[in-house]
Amino acid sequence: MPLLLLLGIWRHLIQRFPLRYDPQYWGMVFPLGMYTTCTFRLANALDLSLLMAIPRIFIFVAWIAWLLVFIGYVHSLGQHILVSKRID
Fold this sequence. Notes:
Layout: H1 2-14, H2 26-46, H3 53-87
Helix pairs in contact: 2-3
């Protein structure tokens, strides 16, 4: 996760690559949710309350990531519809 964050900072802030929606972003969102869910289930199965701190934090990280990618998708879809209506 920290490596992805560092690569994102390098790509978009340092290299000034435009931040646009890309379907591949769902490939980053999915593992966030799955690791959170698996860690939650493992902590329950092993009765490790200390381990529960991870899913309690990462559930918000996963939801925010999902929401940002979804907003990017909706914006991209809206832009596509507007452009196609201008052409017609």
